[in-house]
Write a sequence for this structure.
């Protein structure tokens, strides 16, 4: 099956790696939710081969693409892809960090509380959850392009949408995590870093 090419990964992978590198644990397993094509997975895995990288996704074609990218760009810490649906029990019980990039705005709202609940269960004390994508702050968009983007999301499914950082911080609290950092990224995106208490 083909290795899919998600264009945005070429633009954001370096800045994401810059954010992750000093903030990930020194060892252990990084669970990625909604790995998509698998391009972030193989890129991060090559850059930080001392960590174990667990890719997951809901979609069969994405799971196949992850395998294809692993064949093209193998490295020591890449683990076999697993099917993980945020709305079902997770097939992974423990992780030292959790990544979820560009997923929660383009999936039904129920996926967002499920993400925080799952992360709260799999992470150890001081383990981190990294969310990347567009967010609103106090209900306000950070750009006109994000307003248009949200219109496009809602035209696909009214239950999709740009999520609010304060709502996410409350969900984090409810699941034993704290919002630690809001890192501004190019193209009106942010990385939100949460830490388990
Ligand atoms: C826009 S893509 C982002 C992919 C990748 N993280 C990236 O940044 O390129 C959204 C991903 O979320 C996945 N996804 C959607 N709903 C999901 C769910 N309920 N559980 C797990 N993954 C889901 C999709 O299959 C897709 O791979």
């Amino acid at each position: 099956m083909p290795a899919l090419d998600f264009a945005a990964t070429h633009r954001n992978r370096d800045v994401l790696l810059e954010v992750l590198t000093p903030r990930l644990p020194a060892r252990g397993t990084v669970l990625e939710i909604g790995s998509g094509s698998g391009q972030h997975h193989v890129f991060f895995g090559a850059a930080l081969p001392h960590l174990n990288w667990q890719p997951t996704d809901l979609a069969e074609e994405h799971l196949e693409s992850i395998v294809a990218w692993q064949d093209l760009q193998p490295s020591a810490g890449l683990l076999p892809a697993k099917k993980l649906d945020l709305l079902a029990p997770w097939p992974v019980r423990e992780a030292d960090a959790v990544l979820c990039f560009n997923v929660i705005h383009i999936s039904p709202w129920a996926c967002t509380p499920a993400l925080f609940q799952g992360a709260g269960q799999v992470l150890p004390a001081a383990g981190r959850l990294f969310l990347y994508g567009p967010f609103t702050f106090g209900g306000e968009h950070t750009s006109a392009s994000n307003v248009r983007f949200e219109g496009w999301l809602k035209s696909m499914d009214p239950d999709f949408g740009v999520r609010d950082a304060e709502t996410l911080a409350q969900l984090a609290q409810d699941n034993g995590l704290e919002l630690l950092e809001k890192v501004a990224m190019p193209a009106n995106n942010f990385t939100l870093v949460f830490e388990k208490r």
